[in-house]
Write a structure and sequence with these properties.
Catalytic activity: D-alanyl-D-alanine + UDP-N-acetyl-alpha-D-muramoyl-L-alanyl-gamma-D-glutamyl-meso-2,6-diaminopimelate + ATP = UDP-N-acetyl-alpha-D-muramoyl-L-alanyl-gamma-D-glutamyl-meso-2,6-diaminopimeloyl-D-alanyl-D-alanine + ADP + phosphate + H(+)
Number of helices: 18
Shape: globular
Structural class: alpha/beta
Strand order of the largest sheet: 9-10-8-11-12-13-14-15-16
Function: Involved in cell wall formation. Catalyzes the final step in the synthesis of UDP-N-acetylmuramoyl-pentapeptide, the precursor of murein.
Number of strands: 22
Pathway: Cell wall biogenesis; peptidoglycan biosynthesis
EC number: 6.3.2.10
CATH superfamily of the largest domain: Mur-like, catalytic domain
Keywords: ATP-binding, Cell cycle, Cell division, Cell shape, Cell wall biogenesis/degradation, Cytoplasm, Ligase, Nucleotide-binding, Peptidoglycan synthesis
Distance between the termini: 49 Å
CATH architecture of the largest domain: 3-Layer(aba) Sandwich
CATH class of the largest domain: Alpha Beta
Strand content: 15-25%
CATH topology of the largest domain: UDP-N-acetylmuramoyl-L-alanine:D-glutamate ligase
Amino acid sequence: MTQPPLWTTEALARAMGGRILGKPGPAIADISIDTRTLNAGEAYVAIKGLAHDGHAFAGAALAKGASVAVVSEDWAQSAPPGAYIAVADPLKALEKAGIVARARTAAKIVGITGSVGKTSTKETLARVLAREGRTHAPPKSFNNHIGVPLTLARMPAGAEFGVFEIGMNHAGEITPLTRMVRPDVAVITAIEAVHIENLGSIEAIADAKAEIFVGVEHGGVAVLPRDNRFYERLAKAARAAGIDTIVSFGEHEEADVRLMRIVLAAECSTVSARVMGTDVTYKFGAPGKHLAMNSLAVLAAAKLVGCDLALAALSLGETRAVAGRGEKSLRRLPSGSFTLLDESYNANPVSVRAAISVLAGAPKGPQGRRIVVLGDMLELGNDAERLHAELAEPIDKGNIDLVFCSGPMMRHLWDRLPSHRRAGYAPTAAELEPLVIRGLKPGDVVMVKGSRGSRMAPLVETLKATYEAVPAEDLQGAT
């Protein structure tokens, strides 16, 4: 059966409060803000950002087959011939479309925030819900003032479930986003010292994350981390927002979704949990206790929106780490191979410690070493030097063989390391690249991690470009 269009042009113009110019196509298959990924039949929204004005690409969007370009009234006055929806402000128009899209669907909506684990939890939950019904979720994080309304506006009217990631850098940023999303279930994964430079204290971080509760639908539920030291603060904020039902997850004996037992392995974890009175045992298909803990929040949210618990638990075995968030690949060397663990998407003290724990349990070759390549963790405020230096403790505990560091803050870790662990230091990731490349040997396991601003992702791409992946059919016997 043919799926109905995401929007008709008239409906989108009406939702945005705009007027149609020219002769656009009658149907809109999707909404895009990037001509590089735009497909024919989509609506292009010309967002004016800090670095680029999307109006400069409106012509290219139409040339690629966009049904219509959403542009400002001011720009439309001198626009070349084409199919447009003229609005006062394209970003505000996108927000209006998102609000209308949310109102027209009967989908059960889950909103996810937290200091760490938002994206992996969002992706895992979306995969679980997709086994139960038509599920809408963003392909990437899309968790800010542009990504959230864009994800809402792209939600089909017939969706049965929606999963939204809601992020922030400053206090007050989550409030307008959660009021757009209006989640039935609000999940907070954890509260940690992330963005503390912007907010001043970890208490302020907890309060900023708790803003997600103000948008929760009447009768909605908060899912909270019971082991976190700010659990009571979060629960109080949820109740103050009118949320009567709070479901907790963790190892705490009072957790509603409680981890009873976990067996960690290099590729996955086996988890036994008690989920709101029901015992389940399941495999979680990515390594690391931190990820398995977040799977408890996934099961809680899935059950709360009506999913079959056994089927949800079974689906967790299909989880795989993705690029930037633990993706594992075997790369070919001239005389063997090494394992690359890509954790380059972002970093904070909690996530780096978790990644080091995974590296410590990763199997290496007979002559191989466990190697960590670290870039600066940003936005840590006055505690930055101490938090970087203290990473020496999990490195020592995990018996990590060698450490590469880049960035001024990681210099404090470098200075704390014993000489036998020092593999190389450079002021920038680009300068560190040749040191890492020259330092690899067959059987090594290499984990790369750092904040996005520390530019560790390009270092990973250089490693991938330099050393090709070992095909699956060649894995047997590889070292």
